[in-house]
Amino acid sequence: MTRDMTTGSPLRCILGFCAPLLVGNLFQQFYNLADSMLVGRILGLNAFAAVGATGALSFLILGFVLGSCSGLSIPIAQSFGAGDLDGVRRRAGQLVWLGLGIAGLIGLVCLFWTDDLLRLMNTPAEIFDEAYRYIFIVFMGVGATVLYNLSSAVLRALGDSRTPLHFLVASVLLNVVLDILFMRYLRFGVEGAAWATVLSQLASGLACLVYMARRVPMLRLRRADLKPDLKRIGSMAAIGLPMGLQFSITAVGSILVQGAINGLGAQAVAAVAAAAKVHNVVAAPLETCGIAMATYCGQNLGAGEYARIRRGIWSTMAAAMVYCAFAFAFLFGLGRTMATLFVSPAELAVLRDVQQYLTTLGLFYPTLAVIFVFRSALQGMGYSYRAMLAGVSELIARTLVSFGLVGRFGFTAVCFANPAAWVFADCVLLVLYARVMHELAPFERSRALASAHR
Questions:
Q1: Structural contact between residues 312 and 296, judged by C-beta atoms closer than 8 angstroms
Q2: Is 0.70 topped by the overall pTM?
Q3: Residue 181's pLDDT is what?
């Protein structure tokens, strides 16, 4: 079911769109919790640390996929907001070629350099082999990841956040079943977790394609729609790929931090891996606001509703600030308890580190909310290249912490790596937002005058 977000209460539109996204995001995060819990409980602490040690590298590669797929769908949202249904179909046809190109390029890069990247991150020797076996399989299945994320992003661009949720739920349930089958009964080790992820995403992506072909008439592509159009491909890539690069630039900073964490030993690796799982769940509503904001701004830009973009951004920020207060209270009171899902309650030193890490993050959640809302708003309005500057600022902050502070202050510095990056990014994003809205002000005034004369 498509949704027009250019009319009605901005906050109500955004929250209504967010609801299925949030359920899906939380479901995905709870799956990630279950996946990690199964790895930790079935295969042990070292296997859990091995999978956790690949998190930053996975974010570098798969984050590029996720960001690019979301970005490539923005022109479709703009066409839909403008009422150009033929444009929706033509742009959807070019996504086939863009998706194949992304999957092929990433597959080749990972085929040859995964081992080197893990060594560059200073992955501890006792977990290196398991980390490599796990992440190599995930990377070789990147085509399934592209298929699922691109097809679900297209549906969301049309305002349909419910259908991708249904396929996500089915995918997650299949993933859990395959995890148990591959790791507990077939004894595949960490490779079992990787194969479960790839196969479940492939099934979900194929299901999305069948649904679009049967239920969404504007996405029933004709042969002419599939004919490569280099000009259209280039214009879509100019919006979509910078979003992927934004994720990857941020991930490079995370890799530097992960390398510093790895240098502190397996205990620190396990603590951050467990804390990151908890953080990802608690921060999911903020991330969901960002996903919704990109679609909302894309549709309203296409419709010329500039004042409505402004109202939507600030009303969403107000709601996000309220959530941040609850999130901090939760992390402070129950974060350590949640971490025992992944590590034994007897691992007291690990759990102390977990609590310190989560409390520090929670204090800075308002700065994280600014990133999700304003970065996604800029991307939805087509300013992906400018939004990349926020990723560069995050990279600078994480580099300074990794090389300048972790060696001196140890785990405490690790706790402040992400907050420092968020603050740096906020300073850039707020300036960029002010400049963009200043540039759009003449169009906004013209729109207001035209409405007044009707």
A1: yes
A2: yes
A3: 93
